[in-house]
Design goal:
142 residues, mainly alpha, 5 helices, 79% helix
């Protein structure tokens, strides 16, 4: 297999995983789920939002790292991905209010989602060199 094709295999796998996870979040966000809350605020729910969007951002950041050649990876790309994921979270909240009669948009959910994305951004930027080494090892294996 040629090196270029091998290098893109990891990116393709990450793309498929990121898309499937995005679809999972979309469907779970629009489904009717049971809710346990304390006076209208459920800290467990907010932690789930934060965690779900942390993983979502990590997957898309890894796809970006694996897709691009090292010299074309820059902080602007990470910020653009972050903004898109935060906007996606806002859109999901709007759709919950517009498409369902059992879910309501919640600013606290948007905040939790956004914090998850920003934590993932810091995590990926902090471990960028590690992810680049991982990319090289995986691509040499594939």
């Amino acid at each position: 297999m040629q090196k270029n094709t091998r290098n893109l295999l990891g990116a393709r796998i990450l793309f498929i995983i990121a898309v499937l996870y995005t679809l999972l979040i979309t469907s779970l966000s629009l489904m009717q789920l049971g809710k346990i809350s304390l006076g209208g605020f459920d800290p467990t729910d907010k932690m789930m939002h934060l965690g779900a969007y942390f993983v979502l951002a990590i997957l898309w950041f890894l796809y970006y790292i694996f897709k691009k050649q090292e010299e074309f990876i820059n902080i602007k790309g990470f910020f653009n991905i972050s903004i898109l994921i935060i906007l996606f979270g806002m859109l999901i909240e709007v759709l919950q209010g517009a498409l369902t009669d059992y879910r309501d948009p919640d600013w606290a959910d948007i905040l939790a989602n956004s914090i998850g994305v920003l934590l993932a951004l810091g995590f990926c930027l902090g471990l960028f060199k590690f992810f680049m080494r991982l990319k090289h090892k995986i691509n040499s294996f594939l």
